[in-house]
Amino acid sequence: MKKIVYILTLLLLFSSCKNKAEVKTEHKSEVLDPKNPLNKLKYDNKIDFYCQMDIVKYGVSDSTHFKGKLYGFCSKMCKDEFLKSPEKYLNKK
User: Which residues of the chain carry a pLDDT beneath 50?
Assistant: First the structure.
């Protein structure tokens, strides 16, 4: 009986490690989605101002116009943070 419990415990341990490895691999493959229409637009920035993510490589999920220019962001949160004080981020550019 102890051997069976031990074997089942080992199987559970190895199966959970395998799932974690698959998730990491899946995350690494998250690159530009060609089906996203926002990724086809031309932006005046290449890096998300708030989180510094490369939007050319990883794509855009939200955007905004500010003073006649189009800026792309990886998320709504990053866009909202930019809009709180856009001049601060643009001066760092």
Answer: 18-29
